[in-house]
Write a structure and sequence with these properties.
By secondary structure, this protein is an all-alpha fold. The chain contains four helices and no strands.
Length: about 90
């Protein structure tokens, strides 16, 4: 399988994670957005949207990373979380 196929596979697998910390979920979110969209292309949410701000910040933290590198990092993080949860990676 190629990188894109592996990425799609792990994007599906992480949906079965029984538990994950908010920090881990934000890392995955930021990498996913960078891999699928590229650099941040929206304004940062305002004061009354703390969840949106956290997600935006996680995405912004990956700015400049190539989409292939973001996919690879996403796969690595997903494997770590799946193994930690005792699920097949």
């Amino acid at each position: 399988m190629g990188l894109k196929e592996d990425f799609d596979l792990y994007a599906e697998k992480v949906k079965s994670l029984p538990t994950a910390t908010n920090e881990d979920l934000l890392i995955l979110y930021g990498l996913f957005k960078q891999a699928t969209v590229g650099n941040v292309n929206t304004d940062r949410p305002g004061l009354f949207d703390p969840k949106g701000k956290a997600k935006w910040d996680a995405w912004k933290g990956n700015e400049g990373k190539s989409q292939d590198d973001a996919m690879s990092d996403y796969i690595t993080k997903a494997k770590q979380l799946l193994e930690a949860a005792g699920l097949p990676a």
